[in-house]
Design a protein that fits this description.
The complex is a heterodimer. Helix content of chain A is about 35%, strand content about 25%. Chain A is α/β, with parallel strands linked by helices. Chain A folds into two domains: about 220 residues, P-loop containing nucleotide triphosphate hydrolases (Rossmann fold), CATH 3.40.50; about 70 residues, Reverse transcriptase/Diguanylate cyclase domain (Alpha-Beta Plaits). In chain A, the strands form three sheets. A six-stranded mixed sheet of chain A has the order 6-7-8-3-9-10, with helices on both faces. In chain A, strands 2-1-4-5 form a four-stranded antiparallel sheet, with helices on one face. Chain A has a four-stranded antiparallel sheet with strand order 12-13-11-14, covered by helices on one side. In chain A, helix 3 packs parallel to helix 5 and helix 5 runs parallel beside helix 6. The radius of gyration of chain A is 23 Å and the shape is globular. The N terminus of chain A is likely disordered. By secondary structure, chain B is mainly alpha-helical. Chain B has two domains: about 240 residues, no CATH class; about 100 residues, abc type-2 transporter like fold (3-Layer(aba) Sandwich). Helix content of chain B is about 65%, strand content about 5%. Chain B has 15 helices and four strands. Chain B has a four-stranded mixed sheet, sandwiched between helices. In chain B, helix 7 packs antiparallel against helix 11 and helix 10 packs antiparallel against helix 14. Classes of the chains: A alpha/beta, B mainly alpha.
Chain lengths: ~350, ~375
């Protein structure tokens, strides 16, 4: 990617957002559909320049939250400030200042790349000069130059996504909502997109990204996990990994590398002091009591004819975090129901 | 003010591109109505002529043969067969081969010669009401005429003679009657379908959702969608009128400019209807079905085929809600009767009102949809 980026606005010297440090401030958001509560009392804050990863299972309320923050859905309760504006009273102004890319990329298939860009330029009332300048900047950023006259339908998934992102940021929004931007595109395009996001975020653009990929969540500077309308995790990946719920006192996490993971798992689960264990590729991740004798585990498995290459301590992954928090949340719910 | 139409220019320009890109659809939707026009213009004749008739002449003498000649000369009846019995006559009617059966009784000539009233039985298949009505009228007229002729024998003039003069369509040509009305139906077809599809396509692709996250406002979006298809509809109207005038030789008595101006509110109403349909339909298949809904009422309750005077009172309000009702009055008025704005302004106003109402409802539905989806 090019080094000179005159196109990207500097967050520090932007003056139109009241100087607030926060790109998004969601305060006790509630959204009901009839009797069904899609979003129940969700609060979080996103600082300027953050890449905010918003995770959760399908149907857990991710898209509903996006719709509320973009002014498409009225709030049943709570309030939300986006780019310093109250979405309930200024939805039009909010839409001027944000970009949105849906998971379907939502392009006009029968129009060319240039025509798609021009259309959004007109939608945001860019002058012809501004439009030309912005199009050049975006081409430089995403490399769409050679495809300008190609119909969007004939682009591959990765290029479609770059075009959609280009359309969403044509009007220089400082906050972009990306709803599953990497669903269904190849790994190279996925990597390139994230490189682009980091670069833009370095220039003060805030990203609100939903994803199902845990490795993408790890790349975010701020992660939240929504589980059926409730926010059950919110923080930096590292702070989440260090939560006491994830690391109960007197426990640690270990990784056991072995060629025979399936058999090893069966025996590992019988060892006292191993609280839980699960397979990760060619290894087993386990939550164990911290006084567990690791050499003893190795010998025990060897006795069953299972060679162990390595046993080492492991930091919890975000997936571990979300799994653990989901269990905790379910237990709490069942307890409150009983 | 500019704000509530935000995005109009962008959408208009983009929509024009879509239309140009998809030349196949455009061509198809422009030529389909012309084909319908050829079918109806050449293939349909509303004048009832040569109704197949079975004749059972039980008498057979000169007087009865004179009566048969009168039936044949009327050009309304065409004798399919001479039956030899009541049964044979009935069979042909039941089988649908003959629409009318005429039986001249054995004593027809005798009774006439003895100055008595002679009765002729005319059986009419009532399954087609317009044929039946014509058959009744013409056979009554023949009977009356024959009676008069016999009563007047020595006097050579009638006391009262009617001289009907048919205005506007003196030869009662069917294309003159059909094509101006068909214009309204064909325009409705094209415009409603095209707009409904163009919006539903955006729903399916997800681009509509995308647009709602931009500053584009519902009226800007809808008018931007509507106007390009207004141009298409107007072009279609010009095509239809050209064909009507030069291929079907329907004379245009009034002002073409007036017709063009009054077609705009009609197209506006039809397009708004398409938009309303698209606000309801989630897929193109659903839009297709919904777009067919207004067509039948527009054919049957607008006066296009059946005179509006025959519509039962409870359905009369329905006919006033159908845009085609007003536009058919406008096309027939301008083309056949040479009507001017003085005669037609109310129809134009009604169309403007219907169009605006439909568009406002559609815009509201879109606004609500965004908010509740």
């Amino acid at each position: 990617m090019s080094e000179a980026m005159p196109n990207v606005p500097q967050a520090q010297n932007s003056s139109d957002n009241g100087g607030s440090e926060l790109a998004i401030s969601a305060d006790h958001l509630v959204r009901n559909f009839g009797n069904f509560t899609a979003v129940g009392d969700v609060s979080f804050q996103v600082k300027r320049g953050e890449i905010f990863g918003f995770l959760g299972p399908n149907g857990s309320g991710k898209t509903t939250v996006i719709k509320m923050l973009t002014g498409l859905l009225p709030l049943t309760g709570g309030s939300a400030m986006v780019q310093g504006l109250d979405v309930r009273t200024h939805p039009e102004e909010v839409r001027e200042r944000i970009g949105y890319m849906s998971q379907k990329f939502s392009l006009y298939d029968d129009l060319t790349v240039a025509e798609n860009l021009q259309f959004y330029g007109r939608v945001y009332s860019l002058s012809p000069d501004q439009l030309k300048k912005r199009m050049n900047e975006i081409i430089e950023l995403n490399g769409l130059g050679p495809y300008m006259d190609r119909q969007a339908a004939k682009l591959s998934g990765g290029w479609k996504q770059r075009l959609a992102l280009g359309c969403a940021m044509l009007h220089e929004p400082k906050l972009l909502f990306l709803d599953e931007p990497t669903a269904g595109i190849d790994p190279v395009a996925r990597r390139q997109l994230w490189d682009l996001l980091f670069e833009l975020s370095g220039h003060g653009i805030t990203f609100f990204v939903t994803t199902h990929y845990m490795d993408e969540a790890e790349r975010c500077s701020h992660v939240a996990y929504i589980y059926y309308g409730k926010l059950i995790a919110d923080g930096t990946p590292n702070s989440l990994r260090e939560l006491p719920e994830i690391n109960p006192p007197g426990t640690m996490r270990i990784e056991i590398s072995t060629p025979e993971v399936t058999r090893a798992l069966r025996f590992a689960r019988q060892i006292p002091n191993i609280r839980s264990a699960t397979i990760f590729g060619q290894s087993i991740h386990a939550l164990v009591d911290d006084h567990l004798d690791l050499e003893g585990v190795r010998e025990r498995l060897l006795k069953e004819g299972i060679a162990v290459a390595e046993i080492r301590p492991l930091a919890p992954s975000l997936e571990d975090v979300f799994v653990e928090l989901t269990y905790k949340h379910q237990e709490l719910q069942e307890a409150s129901r009983a | 003010m500019r704000d509530i139409f935000r995005g109009f220019g962008a959408v208009f320009f983009k929509e024009a591109l879509h239309i140009r890109r998809d030349a196949g659809t455009l061509f198809f939707s422009l030529t389909m109505p012309l084909m319908q026009m050829f079918l109806l213009g050449f293939g349909v004749d509303t004048n009832i002529r040569r109704v197949p008739t079975v004749m059972y002449n039980a008498d057979g003498r000169r007087e009865s043969r004179e009566l048969i000649d009168r039936f044949v000369n009327s050009d309304t009846f065409s004798i399919l067969r001479y039956a030899q019995s009541d049964g044979e006559m009935n069979d042909l009617i039941v089988a649908g081969k003959a629409r009318v059966g005429i039986k001249i009784p054995v004593d027809y000539s005798d009774r006439l010669l003895h100055q008595m009233s002679a009765q002729v039985l005319v059986l009419i298949d009532g399954s087609d009401s317009s044929i039946a009505a014509t058959a009744i009228n013409v056979s009554n007229a023949i009977g009356l005429d024959e009676s008069l002729r016999r009563a007047l024998k020595d006097r050579d003039f009638m006391a009262v003679e009617m001289r009907p003069k048919m205005l506007f369509n003196p030869d009662s040509r069917s294309p003159n009657f059909f094509l101006p009305g068909l214009t309204a139906i064909m325009l409705l077809n094209v415009t409603t379908f095209l707009t409904a599809f163009s919006i539903v396509r955006e729903k399916e692709r997800g681009t509509l959702e995308q647009l709602f996250v931009t500053p584009v406002r519902p009226f800007g979006l809808l008018l931007g969608k509507l106007l390009p298809y207004l141009c298409v509809g107007f072009f279609e109207l010009c095509l239809i009128l050209t064909f009507m005038r030069f291929i079907f030789r329907v004379p245009i008595h009034g002002s073409l400019i007036l017709l063009a101006i009054l077609s705009l509110p009609y197209l506006f109403a039809a397009l708004s209807l398409g938009i309303l349909i698209s606000s309801k339909a989630a897929s193109q298949a659903e839009a297709m079905q919904l777009a067919f809904l207004p067509i039948l009422p527009s054919v049957f309750f607008s006066g296009y085929i059946f005179p509006r005077e025959t519509i039962p009172a409870i359905f009369r309000p329905l006919s006033y809600m159908i845009p085609a009702t007003y536009f058919i009055n406008i096309t027939r008025g301008v083309i056949l009767r040479g009507a001017t704005l003085r005669h037609l302004w109310a129809d134009g106003l009604a169309l403007c009102a219907i169009g605006t109402l439909l568009l406002v409802i559609a815009a509201r539905r879109f606004q609500n949809k965004v908010i509740s989806a």
